[in-house]
Amino acid sequence: MITRRDFLKIAAFSSLLGLGGAFTINALEKEPGQKVLKDINALKGKRWAMVIDTRKFKTELDFEKVIKACHKAHNVPEIANPLHEVKWIWTDDYKHSFTHTAEEYISDEIKHRKFLLLCNHCENPPCVRVCPVKATFKRPDGITMQDMHRCIGCKFCMAGCPYGARSYNFLPPRDYIKEFNPEYPTRTLGVVEKCTFCNQRIDKGQLPYCVEASEGKIIFGDLYDPNSEIRKVLSENIVIRRKVELGTQPMVFYII
Amino acid sequence: MLDLALKGKPRYWIWISFLITMILIGFICWLREHHIGAAFTTGLSRDVSWGFHVGQLTFFVGVAASAVLVVLPYYFHNYKAFGRITVIGEFLAVGCVLIAMLSVFVIMGQPSRVWNVILHPTPHSIIFWDMFVLMTYLFLNLLCGWTILHAEKKDAPPPKWIKPFIYWAILWAPSIHTVTAFLYAGLPGKPHWMTALQAAHFLATAFAAGPSLLIIISMIIRKVSKFDPGQQAINKLAEIATYALIIHLFFIGLEFFTAFYSQIPDHMKSLIYLYWGLEGHDRLVPWMAISTLLAFTGLLIFMFPPLRKWNVTKLIGAICIFFSIWMDKGFAFVVSGFIPNSFDRVTEAWIALNEFLVAAGVWSVGALVITVLYKIAITVKEKAVFDKYGQKQVVD
């Protein structure tokens, strides 16, 4: 039981430190954090991973559908300047997607093929290691999460990520959102954001937007479950990943 | 003792006013960045997310660490000539640590959330340790400098309890720059930064640039006050800087060997970009050419004893070395780590005017603190005619 006197003491001390209300409330809380019941429909997995069947992406529209589904739902600002753009999922060619392993004499078709790029949700993510405030952290199911409301904008994670998967809000993002989706929070100037494997959907039992929009071209599942579809696909196809030599263990696989 | 900083000649107040003006300009520019966004106010981008400010952090942590070069010989080896300038070195460290810490603060996109670093301490992040070691070093130098100066003012030997803190500060100095190097040296996918030599190289550059700055400062102090840091001390600083500079250049050679003998493209590309330009991108080539030229000019001057000892050439040499390392470590080193980017493309970066003015504001904060502390120290030292070894401090 907290007496009035204790409350005032904590409040005075925390305002003295300039920590504001949140700290006071945290200090008053007897139990650390509120227990939230997990949605009974939530997808259960120990290590979410993704296989992108690049053979099946044929037209511009195939990519556009996937990218739009993600960017629209997540209120990703549309910034034209590539220096300051924000992107969660995008495309690049073979040579620039697989910088260290690209084969020079591979077929022209593959050379000109486009590849979907996104956060790799690495098993051993350097971004999580370098973040000074745990704004980016690892969920038990393997998702590399990004808390845009805790991020201090130091950009260390951007230097740490070897995949260029992180975007900093160089411009006020709300000014560049064409169609606003009230279901998902918008971000503010000066924070880093990226793909979160649609954690909000997984927790409700839905597949990520890009997987849904791809109509079977992207396979999503639990890598640690030997009976999962993704494991079946991985065992039946030859796949490559980006920059495996760095030991980050990327969780996005590409069927060539 | 603070009252001593409130009495000064007009030129002292003009200098103080100038610094305060620069701080205000910097502050306005900083607010501007947080109002309209870093896209318009910095030279940074998605691909080069760190630039000038992080460079300033790197460089000034080094200068701060180099205070150990005057403190260590005096306390560990009883090298008396440095007795007069230990406080000068310690107060320089205070100002430089402030510059370094503020340089990190100004890169933050959400400065109001800076408390998160303390609220959610994250020992696996190097920034957490950087904050911790810099705060400690700031406290130690302020404490040691102030206590010793206070004793000097009262014509008494420094109290005994300060000794452990002095030794602590000496051992702490290399650690602050090692931690700075660890910000860079442990990132996968940044081969230019990822070298085990990084901390050692940083210390070498710090121990060349720091004493060079101390030489410049000592000459200024000698000019504007009656206190003389001592010719012997200044000469010794130049000798230290010479060795450190040679080690720095040797280390550059080592980096070149590893990159070009192994022929691993990722290791070569950043160096090619810096010195010759990569795929037609050569914005930093003249910058590095000037830095290299300054380094060798400084080396040439400091290698020959007559030139090193003559105060005119000594000052030129010190300026050359200081700016050579500032250009390299304070900007080029940071940017070149991002080149090529994660997709093997080149995105260049430069310093935006707004960004530069913010940095100028940050330097001015450091300079203001250093000026005030030096004003106090010099006033005290001008009065204390003899130091604890009976050496004359004031030259009439």
Element layout with pairings:
The complex is a heterodimer of chains A (256) and B (396).
Chain A lengths: L3 H13 L3 H9 L19 E6 L6 H14 L15 E5 H4 L10 H5 L1 E5 L7 H5 L5 E3 L5 E3 L9 H5 L6 E2 L23 E2 L5 H4 L6 H6 L3 E5 L6 H8 L2 E2 L11 E4 L1
Parallel strand pairs in A: 1-10
Antiparallel strand pairs in A: 1-8, 2-3, 4-5, 6-7, 9-10
Chain B lengths: L9 H27 L1 H4 L10 H14 L2 H9 L9 H22 L8 H4 L6 H28 L8 H24 L12 H27 L6 H32 L2 H11 L9 H19 L1 H5 L1 H26 L16 H31 L13
Model description:
The complex is a heterodimer of chains A (256) and B (396). Chain A has 256 residues and is an alpha+beta fold. Chain A is built from ten helices and ten strands. Chain A has helices at 4-16, 20-28, 60-73, 94-97, 108-112, 126-130, 156-160, 199-202, 209-214, 229-236; strands spanning 48-53, 89-93, 114-118, 136-138, 144-146, 167-168, 192-193, 218-222, 239-240, 252-255. In chain A, strand 4 (136-138) and strand 5 form a beta hairpin. In chain A, helix 1 runs antiparallel to helix 2 (20-28). The longest helix of chain A has 14 residues, at 60-73. The model of chain A is unreliable at 27-32 (pLDDT under 50). With 396 residues, chain B is mainly alpha-helical. Chain B has one domain. In chain B, helix 5 (86-107) runs antiparallel to helix 7 (126-153) and helix 10 (231-262) crosses helix 11 (265-275). The longest helix of chain B is centred in the middle third of the chain and has 32 residues, at 231-262. Chains A and B meet through helix 4, helix 6, helix 7 and strand 6 of A and helix 6 and helix 7 of B.
